[in-house]
């Protein structure tokens, strides 16, 4: 399984590398100081829906043809999952990742989902 993988992946897109994380939140607390200028988890968190939209909106391919066929395939995949009533987040996210890797037939271009080695 990709424990926390999808979410940490998307978190990382929103993290501002120039900002420190709020010490209260790092130590497990919740910062209620509205003037605090540090980075907070609530600012970088995405909902499951937002993550899926982001995954689905990534355009892949080096040419217009490739991008079109990627998009068509992705649309088919999503339609298919809907018709099979698959809406659990982990499954949908994993299927999209699988689609990406099979589209390129190149595992080196698959987004790394797990943390650490
Ligand atoms: Zn704070």
TrEMBL record:
<dbReference type="InterPro" id="IPR019607">
    <property type="entry name" value="Putative_zinc-finger_domain"/>
</dbReference>
<dbReference type="InterPro" id="IPR039278">
    <property type="entry name" value="Red1"/>
</dbReference>
<feature type="domain" description="Putative zinc-finger">
    <location>
        <begin position="21"/>
        <end position="42"/>
    </location>
</feature>
<dbReference type="Pfam" id="PF10650">
    <property type="entry name" value="zf-C3H1"/>
</dbReference>
<dbReference type="GO" id="GO:0000178">
    <property type="term" value="C:exosome (RNase complex)"/>
</dbReference>
<protein>
    <recommendedName>
        <fullName>Putative zinc-finger domain-containing protein</fullName>
    </recommendedName>
</protein>
<dbReference type="GO" id="GO:0005634">
    <property type="term" value="C:nucleus"/>
</dbReference>
């Amino acid at each position: 399984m990709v424990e926390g993988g999808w979410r940490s992946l998307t978190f990382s897109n929103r993290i501002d590398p120039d900002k420190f994380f709020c010490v209260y939140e790092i130590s497990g607390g919740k910062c209620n100081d509205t003037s605090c200028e540090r980075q907070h988890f609530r600012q970088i968190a995405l909902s499951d829906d937002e993550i899926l939209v982001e995954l689905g909106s990534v355009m892949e391919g080096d040419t217009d043809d490739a991008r079109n066929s990627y998009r068509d395939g992705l649309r088919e995949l999503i339609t298919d999952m809907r018709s099979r009533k698959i809406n659990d987040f982990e499954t949908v996210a994993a299927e999209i990742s699988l689609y990406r890797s099979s589209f390129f037939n190149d595992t080196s271009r698959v987004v790394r989902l797990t943390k650490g080695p």
